[in-house]
Fold this protein.
Amino acid sequence: MAENGPLFGTVVEVEVGAPAHGGSCVARHDGRVIFVRHALPGELVRARVTEDRGGAFCRADAVEILRPSDERVAPPCPHAGPGRCGGCDWQHASGAAQRDMKGAIVREQFERLAGIDVADLFAGVEALPGGLLGWRTRIAYAVRPDGRAGLHRHRSHQVEVLDACPLGVPGVGDAAALARSWPGLTGIEVARSADGLSVLAHRPGSGRQARGRRPPDRVSVVDGPSRLTQRVGERDFTVAADGFWQVHPDAAATFAGAVLAAVAPQPGETVLDLYAGAGMLTALLAEAVGTTGNVIGLESSRRAVADAATNLADLPWAGVRQARVDEASLAALGVDPDVIVLDPPRAGAGRTVLAALLAMRPRAIGYVACDPAALARDVRVALDAGWQLSAIRAFDAFPMTHHLECVALLTPAPSGG
Ligand SMILES: C[S@@+](CC[C@H](N)C(=O)[O-])C[C@H]1O[C@@H](n2cnc3c(N)ncnc32)[C@H](O)[C@@H]1O
C-alpha cells in the first residue's frame, strides 16, 4: 500500500467535523480532507497522518486531544487507540454519541446517495439490549505467522495480540483459544450458541485467485458442536457452525420484528424472502401468512439451504431454494409476490436485482441492510421507478464499531408506476 505522500507521518492540528461512514471524522487541512480516527466531532486534535496516497484525502489518527468533546470517555479496552486493535472504532465515545454519529451517517448517506432527506421518517439509531460490551457471540480472530491470535490493526495485515476482547460474550471474548498458539492457521473463530462453544480453524485455501487475492480459507470445526441452535422468539433454528447468523444475541429477533412490522404480511399472501440464509426470516414470514400463504426463499449457499430445510420442516408452505438472486432466478419463480423481503450481503442488491423486484409489483418491499450506503443506492433505484421510502429504522447491533443495521420499507408511490 503506497503511504509515501507528502503528509504521511506528519502531525497536523485540526478541528474535527462530522463523523464519516467507516469510523472516522472529517477534518480539513490545507484544502485537503483528512479522515481522522480516534477523534470526535467538535474536538481540536493533533493528528498523525497514517496514509497519504496523494489524492483528495488522507487518513490520520488523533494522537493528542487538545479540546475534548463532552462525549469522550476512557476506552474500556486496553488495546484501543492509534495504531492498536482495529476491531473497534468508537471505544472513546459514549453510547449515546455512538448512536448519534451513526444516525448522522444514515442521514448523510441518504442525502448523498439517494438524494433524499430522511429526517421526517427516521427517529435515530435504536440501542439493542445489553450495553456496549459483551455482545459478540462470535469473533473471528486473526493468527500471526508465529501462531499467536488477536485482531487486525486498522487497515493493516498486522495482528494486535490479545488476551481478551471485551466485546465478546463469556467464552468468546475471553476465549481459551487466545492463550494458545495456532501455527499454520490464518485465523481461529469462536462462536457461542445454546449448545456451547465452537472453535473453528481457518487454514490457508488452495488454488489461485485473480489479482493476487488469497484463496478463501478452508474452515473446519476443531472443538465443540458443528451445528448451533439459535433461538428467535419461540422457534429454534439449526445453523452450521460456519454458517451465517447475526452476531448480537438480540439482533435476529430485533430485525425480524422490525421487518415483519414494516411489511405486515397477511394470511394467504405470497412472500419472497431473498438472501434467506438458514431460513430465519422465511419461518417467521411463513407463520405470519399461515397455511393459505406461500413463502419462497432464495439463497446461494447450499449448506444454508440444507439448514433451512430442517428449520422449515413444520412449515410446508415455506421453502428455500438454492439460487443466486438475479434477474433469471427471479423470473424463473413465475410468481407475483405480495411482499418481498431482502437481506443481502454488504454490497446490497444492486440496480439490476432491484429493478427486477420492482417489476414484480409487490405491495411492499422490506429491506434489511448492514450498509446504509448500499441501502441508499438501492433506494435511489426504487425512487426513480416511482416508489417511495415509507419507513426506515436503524439499530446499533454492533456497539463500539461503525457498523449498524437498517430496516427500510419501500412501497409504490400513490401516483407512481
Ligand atoms: C445477511 S445474510 C442474511 C441471512 C438471513 N436473512 C438471516 O437473517 O439469517 C445474507 C445471505 O445471503 C446469501 N447470499 C450472498 N449472496 C447471494 C446471492 N447473490 N444470491 C443469493 N444469496 C446470496 C449469503 O449466503 C447469506 O446467507
Remarks:
- Residues 244, 275-278, 280-281, 298-301, 304, 324-325, 343, 345 surround S-adenosylmethionine (CB under 6 Å).
- DSSP finds seven helices and 21 strands in the chain.
- Residues 138-225 form one domain.
- Residues 212 and 339 are 42 Å apart (CA to CA).
